[in-house]
Amino acid sequence: MIDSPLSPSEIGAAPVIVDAPHAPLVNVRGLHKRFNETEVLRGVDLEIGKSEVVCVIGPSGSGKSTLLRCLAALETYDEGEVRIEGELLGYGMRNGRRVRASQAEINRVRRNVGMVFQQFNLWPHMSALDNVMEALMRVRRLPRDKARARAAMMLETVGLAHKGDAYPAKLSGGQQQRVAIARALAMEPHIMLFDEPTSALDPELVGEVLQVMKQLARDGMTMAVVTHEMGFAAQVADKVVFIDQGRIAVQGKPREVFHDAQHPRLRQFLQNYFDRNAFWSRGSQEGQT
Ligand SMILES: Nc1ncnc2c1ncn2[C@@H]1O[C@H](COP(=O)(O)OP(=O)(O)O)[C@@H](O)[C@H]1O
Ligand SMILES: [Mg+2]
Question: Which end of the chain has less neighbouring CB within 10 Å, N or C?
Answer without folding.
Answer: N
